[in-house]
Amino acid sequence: MPNSFEIGRDITLDTEEYVYVTGSILNSLLNYDYTIIKYNPFSGNTECSMQYDGIGNGDDNSNAIITDNEKKIYITGESEGDTTGLDFATIKYSNDISGTGTCNYLMRNIDNMYLSWDWSDPPTYYHTLSITGVHDGEGAKINVFPPQYRLWFIMDAEGFVCYFPPSRNCYFYYQAIIACYDPAIGDTVYTIKTPISSVKKQFCGLARDNRFFGSLWFTVLDETNIYHIITENSIDTFNIDIDSIMGLAFDFDNNHLWCIASGSPDMFYEYNVSDSAVLIQSMIVPWDSLIDNSAAGLEYHEDCNMIVAVNKNKHTIERFCDLTPEGTGGVEWIDKCTLGLEYPPDPFGIALVKDTEEAFIAGNTQGGPFPLDVYSNSCSSFGITLDLKVYMEGPFTIFGMYTALFNGGLLPLSQPYNVPPWNYSGIESVQLFPNTNIVDWVLIELRDASGADSATEATMIARQAAFLLNDGSIVGLDGISMLKFYKPINDSLFVVIWHRNHLGIMSTIPLTETGGIYSYNFTTSSAQAYGINAQKELAPGVWGMIASDGNADGQVNIDDKDNVWAPQAGEAGYKSGDYNLNGQVANPDKNYFWVPNIGKGSQVPD
User: Which residue, of 443, 491, 505, 602, has the fewest CB within 10 Å?
Assistant: First the structure.
């Protein structure tokens, strides 16, 4: 970064001999931040870099750095506090800093033609476009609506949005016009004139609504309305009493419209727009460094349930987990990357391209050509992918677990863990089962702790219902994929397996990542489950979860016979007293599973 002021103060190596340098770097506000740069010892190239700005948003100077055997990084120095002057500030980074440093810059597209700014009032450049409808790239009226599969952008002030390829075209706002821009040729292809007056107005957000072809949402700065284009000549208006919306994003799965508003502080708003625009929840944007009036653009990544926003003051792309996409669980900050020297001086939006995992950042058109910078934006780089294997005693055979519940049509289409003691609120469900090898639903829980003894319920960071297959693998709702979580890990990752009538188990040691996947096999030893005799040997050298905890209280005792098995005896169905999971509650459940297991208990830490 030759055009910035950098001071190096300390250097260290990790266990793989990668080089880390720390010091200070001058930020856009002319204050110093901690900086870390990671170098590849074999090529000599920079792997990544990142900065830290303290809570006082003043000068922060890193003086020393060290790594441990798990590649965790510790830096220390002085940081300017809010009211306390210079403080000691020591920071620990989990694992390494890959994916949390400088954004991976790919290229820049520039439109030198149609988007040159016209400052006249009213704008003469578009003055002939007085009729609502569709026009070509030079402003001439055409009589066909734009074809499908375009990329949609908004480009007047603060945001834009993508519609996916095969066509790589982009739609955006210029004053009162939605324009289609093609990055492949660097020019505007056609435009859509709206019946909203453009004089002295600043259009700020655009989101595509997947329910109707050509349907878009947009906002106007300093107005309290959001607008919904249903067809080219039909616009619905909703007053939301917020006049500082800078970006919009649409959650296709739930018909929810997300807004980001600039203010003191910046705010997220989520609306259900199935029928009108009903506010679901609002919250302060939890930027990594809280600076007011930082909101610049917004997008929603469907595959990751992730909100992606531009922070124009900190020059970052920051990502947030939508904790309950269907409800009101709020958001949680995941990570950020810092935009480099190519970052436009007046940015206003972000758009994601799903199939190429690219993010487009737009600069303002004022004063000349319109810049469109492209970055890589893969959500796979910071997610937790789990490759898990576990057996359960009830359905186990030496040939694998049997699938009698599936074969008998007894498995529920929705996850069964929304009742005590789990009280899991997830909405995992399927219309049809995607795999004929499903044994049952299980509930997977992640805990983030320094060690197994401290991995209590209070350290839980995420849960997800999933399918257990007859070979012991645990998969997502498509019946084949490994589970994916989008949560940062601060200490070490432990995994808990819950089942409705088998004793829960937890990994004895932290899961480690290899090739982007966290793997753990519970079946190879009793010691793979935390505690003493937390699993049962089902065949020589093969271990599994212990059956007959019918009331799921973590203990196999008389209650599991008298209060669960006995009232259900003789019944067929999806029953908690069916300890061998064959679809029938009968004497074998009691005699072969409950009786041998009396007195056993789960050893998952409370």
Answer: 491
In the block, residue with structure tokens 């800078």:
246
Buried b (16+ CB within 10 A) or exposed e, 432-445: eeebebbbbbbbbb
Q: How many CB atoms lie within 10 A of CB 526?
A: 15
CA dist 415 and 510 (Å) reads: 27
Q: Report strand pairing: 517-521 vs 384-389.
A: parallel
DSSP label of 565 = I
Distance, CA of 58 to CA of 52 (rounded, Å): 11
**Using one digit for the tens of pLDDT, what is the confidence trace for 304-343?**
778 988 888 887 888 888 877 777 778 888 878 777 655 5
What pairing do the DSSP bridges indicate for beta strands 517-521 and 536-539?
A: unpaired
Could you give phi then psi for residue 405, rounded to 5 degrees? Answer: -65, -40
List, for residues 465-482, the tens digit of each pLDDT value.
Answer: 999 999 999 999 989 999
Count of residues in the chain: 606
Phi, psi of 593 (to 5 degrees): -125, -50
Q: Is 570 left (phi over 0), alpha (psi -120 to 50) or beta?
A: left
Buried b (16+ CB within 10 A) or exposed e, 57-77: bbbbbbeebebeeebbbebbb
Question: Strand, helix or coil at 143?
Answer: coil
User: 418, 391 in Cβ contact below 8 A?
Assistant: no
